[in-house]
Amino acid sequence: MSATTTPDLAAPRSPQIRKKGVNLEKVGWVYMRVSGVLLVVLIFGHLFTNLMVGDGIHALDWGFVAGKLANPFWQWWDILMLWLALIHGANGMRTIVNDYVTGEKVRKTLVWAVFVAAGLLIVLGTLVVFAFDPCNGVTSDSVFWEACQAL
């Protein structure tokens, strides 16, 4: 049988030496707070303009979306919302993985997979917003033919 010793809690602790450089955990913590506040503003602004202004929810159709995505203001609004939300979510998933996954290799693999997935979605979403062409593939028998001819 071996005796276990407990640490002396009354003993003075040696001062912790802080590593020089950027504290990434602190940067992530601050990012979550700032992006959370910005996302609340962006999301409620998005919902308000889409659901309450003008004809409200009855105006939501292909033409409404095409008109919004043709406006640079709304393109950048949507891009900012997309980027902030995906990075915010990926950072939250990274925190959960770091808290609950004990194996070093598994944890690194999962964190890597989360950031690759977020990066892929950011790239694809950005391409959709900036490369969106509502008239791409519209033929003369389409209901959008006249609208696209007017452009």
Give a description of the structure.
Its main location: membrane. The chain crosses the membrane at residues 30-53, 73-90, 110-132. The chain is mainly alpha-helical. Helix content is 66%, strand content 0%. The longest helix has 29 residues, at 72-100. It is elongated, with a radius of gyration of 25 Å. It starts with 23 loop residues before the first helix and ends with a helix. The relative contact order is 0.09. The mean pLDDT is 87.
SSE topology:
Layout: H1 24-51, H2 62-69, H3 72-100, H4 104-131, H5 145-150
**What amount of the residues lies in strands?**
under 5%
Distance between the termini: 86 Å
Number of H/I helices: 5
- Determine and state the CATH class: Mainly Alpha
CATH superfamily: Fumarate reductase/succinate dehydrogenase, transmembrane subunit
* Whole-angstrom Rg: 25 Å
- The CATH topology corresponds to 3 helical TM bundles of succinate and fumarate reductases
The percent range for helix content is 55-70%
Sequence stretches where pLDDT stays below 50 over 5 or more residues: none
List the defining traits of the structure above.
66% helix, metal-binding, 3 helical TM bundles of succinate and fumarate reductases, 151 residues, elongated, 5 helices, mainly alpha, single chain
Can you give me a brief rundown of this structure?
Helices cover 66% and strands 0% of the residues. The chain is mostly helical and 151 residues long. It comes from Microbacterium aurum.
